[in-house]
Design a protein that fits this description.
This protein is of the alpha+beta class. The chain has 4 domains: 242 residues, Antithrombin, Chain I, domain 2, CATH 3.30.497.10; 86 residues, Alpha-1-antitrypsin, domain 1 (Roll); 115 residues, Yope Regulator, Chain: A; 127 residues, 2-Layer Sandwich (Yope Regulator, Chain: A), CATH 3.30.1460.20. The protein has 17 helices and 24 strands. Helix 2 crosses helix 4 and helix 12 packs across helix 14. Belongs to the ARPC2 family. It is found in: Cytoplasm, Cytoskeleton. Its main location: cytoplasm.
Length: 652
């Protein structure tokens, strides 16, 4: 490691201490492990790109640092601390790293290789189960620190949209090269400041120590039995001048003290103590120039995976220190939580009530219903808690419909042409925010202090927001047909990538056409059979006519831009006045809004069933073959000896 680069790291460590000190109360004890923070941030650095990587690099290693040098330094720091782990008779040093990643979240190979260089574990957890994920991470930290660091991850830190937690743990225990005699330890006054003093157990001894002094302070070095490790203690020359000493010292002065002292006889009195200190590093690291890593808009950790939608939400640090006659025991842990940029996604519907946000869930769910069950449950819990006077906590849900289709509508601008804004105001009234949340099209605000006793209708409507957005198109063209406005332009809604919905009104019908993409030939066959079954089961001709065409659009789309492709199917619903009248239209809209998901769920479910049946039949066939297989004892070994004149004798 180059001394210049190491000096930059030392400077960063001293600044880190100064920032944390300034963020605490003057009477509060502070203890931290800068190396634990460095290693945890370094693991995030390996996954950073662009400006994000550059800002971490500059903050820790200085403006002149190069990427290859910074990477090498992080690895070298890890090696210096670990070697990898030291466990001598009189000393134990353990450094452990781990990346907890959301199940199914694929890490890029280069990032995995970098983690191997620092001996980091990679463990999959399910952050949707917040309680279990927190338990797993906290237990790992607790075990690695010999139970000295417990519950680093607090109950409300993890969220369903958490994608990963980077954790570092350090444990150290060593005996002094010459222990303090217990009988010399006495109760003595310890001055906290000019006014306060407390009684503490003071260890006393006179022996050879490392010593340095200048006009500001005195430095004492106490060696452990493994002489490569020392504890250094700084004492201001003037009593009660601790803050002045801390403010005046620089990292260069500290380095000089560590190098230019001497071994001399010193009479010492040192407090015997034990304490734990915890810090949230977010504001501190932001002040040191790393603010971009916490910026959901601009953070770039795309070297971790093929996504640019994650950022650091928090960095927590906790450290423990105990000093006694035998030696020192210390432990520290740092956790870097990384989160999905849910708030940075455009064209979404945000359910926003009081100051609690309900966003979309990161775990795919089959929801073949026009009512979102998750939203129903989330709002029910919040409303009931509010009315009961219970303590309310922030919640943050991230939902997805079947087949990975997120609840947000990428085609919102197209819906605006068909009166979606007026339809939403009509349906939700006073609960529609005049100004939506930034980057959102619709915000619904429910004041939890004014929730009515009967709130079922509020929740029912909120859970149908996506359905009601689509309803604006259908209702518009149902009205056209009812009034006889057959000459209106066709509605074209690109409801998914490469998939489109067409709605057109005639004097005697409304035609709704879905184009849908089939990814393989088996999907086409299953889809055709499914649609033929729908057509064949039209009871008494009361159900709408359903027409399926493959590859070419139906006649209704002649002279349009509808695509022609073997993998595209067109499903046409012919809706007569009995389907679009006011008595029937709600049910019709419900069914149309879930049709696409239902079709593709049927295809996937059928394929899974066929595959399971094939596996079952294969297993049965193998069992039959195994039963027919001759047993080994059926054959007896025989030796055949050839005799002259082509005769042979059989010998058992």
């Amino acid at each position: 490691m180059e001394s210049k680069s190491f000096n930059e790291v030392t400077e960063f460590i001293w600044k880190l201490f100064q920032k944390i000190k300034n963020s605490k109360r003057a009477s509060e004890c502070i203890f931290l492990s800068p190396m634990s923070v460095l290693l945890a941030v370094g693991m995030a650095y390996f996954g950073a790109a662009g400006k994000t990587k550059l800002e971490i690099q500059r903050a820790i290693f200085g403006d002149a640092a190069k990427e290859k040098d910074a990477r090498a330094l992080f690895v070298e720091i890890n090696k210096i601390l670990t070697t990898k782990s030291i466990n001598f008779n009189k000393m134990k040093l353990l450094v452990a790293n781990c990346v907890y990643i959301q199940e199914g979240f694929k890490l890029l190979t280069p990032y995995v290789e970098e983690m191997k260089k620092i001996s980091s574990d990679i463990i999959e957890v399910d952050f949707m189960d917040i309680k279990e994920a927190r338990l797993v991470i906290n237990q790992w930290i607790c075990n690695k620190t010999e139970r000295k660091i417990e519950n680093l991850i607090p109950p409300n830190l993890l969220q369903p949209i958490t994608t990963s937690v980077i954790a570092n743990a350090i444990y150290f225990k060593a005996q002094w090269s010459r222990r303090f005699e217990v009988q010399n330890t006495v109760n003595s006054d310890f001055f906290c400041d000019e006014i306060r003093r407390i009684k503490v157990k003071m260890m006393r001894d006179k022996q050879e120590f490392y010593y340095y002094e200048n006009e500001i302070c005195q430095l004492l070095g106490i060696s452990y039995k493994e002489n490569n490790f020392w504890m250094y203690i700084l004492l201001p020359k003037q009593r009660f001048a601790l803050q002045e000493m801390e403010n005046s010292l620089t990292s260069n002065q500290l380095a000089e003290m560590f190098q230019n002292g001497a071994i001399v006889d010193v009479t010492v009195k040192i407090p015997k103590f034990s304490f734990t200190s915890a810090s949230n590093m977010k504001d501190v690291l932001t002040e040191l120039g790393m603010g971009i890593i916490f910026d959901g808009e601009n953070a770039d950790f795309s070297k971790i995976c093929k996504r640019k939608d994650i950022f650091v939400s928090d960095i927590l640090h906790k450290a423990f220190l105990e000093v006694n006659e035998e030696g020192t025991e210390a432990a520290a842990a740092t956790a870097v939580t990384m989160t999905d940029k849910a708030a940075a996604m455009p064209s979404k519907q945000l359910f926003f009530f009081s100051h609690f946000k309900v966003r979309t869930m990161s775990k795919a769910t089959i929801m073949l219903d026009s009512n979102n069950k998750f939203i129903t449950e989330a709002l029910s819990n919040q409303f009931s808690n509010a009315l009961a006077g219970n303590r309310l906590e922030s919640v943050n849900f991230h939902f997805k419909d079947f087949d990975g289709l997120s609840i947000y509508l990428s085609y919102y601008e197209e819906l605006q042409e068909h009166g979606i804004n007026e339809r939403i105001r009509q349906e939700y009234g006073i609960y529609v925010a005049e100004k939506p949340e930034p980057q959102y099209n619709i915000s619904l605000i429910y004041d939890l202090t004014e929730i009515p006793q009967k709130y079922d209708d509020l929740i029912f409507k909120a859970a149908r927001l996506k359905r009601n957005c689509l309803a604006s198109v259908f209702e518009k063209y149902f009205e056209f047909q009812e009034r006889g406005d057959a000459g209106q332009n066709r509605a074209v809604i690109h409801y998914r990538e490469d998939e489109t919905m067409y709605v057109e009104a005639k004097s005697d019908r409304v035609t709704v056409i879905f184009s849908t993409v089939f990814n393989d030939p088996a999907d086409i066959i299953i889809g055709k059979i499914f649609l033929q079954e729908i057509h064949g089961k039209r009871a008494s001709q009361t159900a709408p006519q359903v027409i399926f065409s493959l590859g070419e659009p139906p006649l209704e789309l002649k002279n349009s831009n509808a695509r022609i492709s073997e993998g595209i199917g067109y499903v046409t619903f012919v809706l007569l006045p009995k389907h679009t009248c006011k008595a029937s239209r709600d049910n019709t809209i419900d069914l149309l809004s879930i049709f696409r998901s239902y079709l593709h769920y049927h295809i996937k479910g059928t394929k899974a069933f066929i595959q399971s049946r094939m596996r079952s039949k294969t297993d049965e066939f193998l069992k039959i073959l195994n039963r027919a297989k001759p047993k080994g004892s059926y054959f007896r070994k025989r030796r055949i000896t050839w005799i002259s004149n082509s005769e042979y004798r059989n010998r058992g």
